[in-house]
Design a protein that fits this description.
The chain is mainly alpha-helical. The chain has nine helices and four strands. The strands form two sheets. The protein has a two-stranded antiparallel ribbon. A two-stranded antiparallel sheet has the order 3-4. Strand 3 and strand 4 form a beta hairpin. It starts with 10 loop residues before the first helix and ends with a helix.
């Protein structure tokens, strides 16, 4: 997971949000007002500011696993970090709050070779979370700084609530042939380690140079790069 820096929301979204708040609509009712082409514009804006990475698992989005024939599925979903409420709202409408929106992948909704009730064990990200309370927030530096990784690609947190989010609520360490998150994160880590050792003898300088490159990436960003950024910072700190 990497820190997401929010950009400016589409002006029409702000107007729609003000309308929903004036009418006292619930978060859910307000979000139901968001239709195409504005909804597509919002989705594209979120994807671009995230460097075409899922806010939670860092997979490339739009999700290439979703094909044109999957009429009932989307290759990119708009996620609300603060889950939408169905109760009437006299304050800010979180359903239309751009700062509450994230772009996420399909959550392994189209699980290869798995059918029936067993599919849910392979769901990740928003698809796994549904509307449950979430503590880890990719918009907050404190959350990101609590996260660390193992050499096999496992993602963890020093914060017990965030660690539970990672493992249970978002299922980001789901280990199965149908979900390759650990393997993909490990592959990025292995690549960056090799880069560092192939650049020359000054390992600290190598780490600093690579860290500057990866942190400066805008759009697109390298998939699963969170593990690489964490490792480079950890190496610099230890040298």
């Amino acid at each position: 997971m990497i820190l997401i820096k929010k950009g400016t929301p589409p002006s029409e979204l702000e107007e729609l949000k003000q309308k929903a708040e004036f009418l006292g609509l619930s978060d859910k009712e307000g979000y139901d007002l968001l239709r195409n082409p504005l909804k597509k514009e919002v989705r594209n804006s979120l994807v671009q500011e995230q460097g075409h990475l899922c806010a939670y698992c860092m997979r490339r989005i739009p999700d290439e696993r979703i094909r044109e024939e999957d009429k009932d599925l989307s290759d990119t979903y708009i996620e609300h970090w603060h889950a939408r409420s169905s109760e009437s709202n006299d304050d800010e409408n979180k359903g239309l709050d751009y700062n509450n929106m994230l772009a996420v992948c399909s959550g392994n909704e189209k699980t290869p070779g798995v059918t029936g009730k067993h599919r849910k064990r392979y769901f990740t990200c928003d698809k796994k979370r549904e509307n449950r309370l979430l503590h880890v927030n990719p918009l907050e530096i404190k959350s990101i700084e609590s996260i660390f990784y193992s050499s096999d690609g496992t993602i963890k947190s020093f914060d017990s609530d965030i660690d539970n989010d990672i493992n249970v609520i978002l299922n980001l360490n789901c280990s199965a042939d149908a979900v390759t998150l650990l393997q993909n994160r490990k592959a990025v880590l292995d690549t960056i380690e090799n880069e560092v050792y192939n650049m020359g003898d000054n390992l600290k300088q190598n780490c600093e140079q690579l860290l500057a490159i990866y942190e400066a990436e805008e759009d697109p960003k390298t998939p699963y790069i969170g593990i690489g950024i964490w490792w480079l910072k950890d190496q610099i700190k230890a040298m």
